[in-house]
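Entry:
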Amino acid sequence: MVEKGKEILKIYDLGRLRELADAPLSEDDQKFILVLNNHYIRSRYPDLAYKALPEPSLETTKKNHDQTKKLARWLMEYLENL
């Protein structure tokens, strides 16, 4: 958002931040951001009532970690090319 001269808002919804930043993510990456957001919001606001998430397996955790690293690398390349 800074690179595009957009107003910085104090929000923690990753899906909304992606929309505001207008980052050209693939549909799969947009879906993944919503998965991350689901975990993030729960950790940020533990006092809110949420349906319990299933306990993640080691395989799921590794997959999410790898996909997060891939997304972070993409974001860095994208910012370098703005």
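The mean pLDDT is 85.
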